[in-house]
Amino acid sequence: MDHDNRDRNAGFGGSPPGKTPGDSWADGLPKGRRWSGIAWSLLFLLVPVLGTATFVIAPYYDHWLPKDVSVHGKSIDGLFYFILVLTGVVFLATELILFWFMWKYDAAASSKPATYIQGSHTLEVVWTIIPAATMLFLAIYQMNTWADVKMRRPRMAPSVEVVARQFEWRLRYPGRDETLGTEDDLFIVNDLHVPIDEDFLVQLKSMDVLHSFFLPNLRIKQDAVPGMKIPVWFKATETGTYDIVCAEVCGWGHYKMKGRVTVESRADFDRWLARIEAEQKATQRGPEEIPVAAAD
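Above: the chain's sequence. Below: its structure in token form.
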């Protein structure tokens, strides 16, 4: 009976077999256990160190956000950086605390066995309220940016209709009557042109499945949903040629659903429209040119 009690005590907080209560708890552990604990502690410490270093040096190697060329991009980037810093601080604090506990309370370095607690109701309430309050603050903080991008639509007719289709972007510009849906509309594929420093309103549609209209440099990303006409607007601030990509897996050819957006002066934009109009007319035949089959 006494032998059973000694074994039971050794397994539940007593001294290891062969050790007296005055000996160190670690004395009964192999020496390799101590180095193993140190190695694991340092490994977990590398996570925040290397993670932070990656974010710091990434912009110097051009592995960061694409260049912003839109009016509302600054507020979107500001919101992104604010959330990044906020979550980064929490991440660093959590990882450093984890490292400290692994290092300080390593079994091989402790003089007594671990003790167990039931937890703290107060602590659980605190760490529930703090994230909830943070989320509420972010929801309020971003409202103005969200309204600029998704709610405060410019009062103007659509500048272009963009129809997503596996696996291309079909564009339709209004002709000289400046109205979409008439005979003089201009059609083109994967080549969006935008005048600089002007509000530009896109009427977004999908012909088949769910797509996502993504202009990284203009900080625009909007799902194209079949059966819906979705307005998307922006104002470009710098000339150049940028990417159009689909940010929603839409089939086997999703990877090649790419286009380009060219931001140019109003004069260059008008000349481009005139050229597209001339090319379109050159490929069309009037009713008098269409041959009529002879009657039997």
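Strands lie at 160-165, 168-173, 186-189, 191-195, 199-206, 211-215, 220-224, 230-235, 240-246, 258-264.
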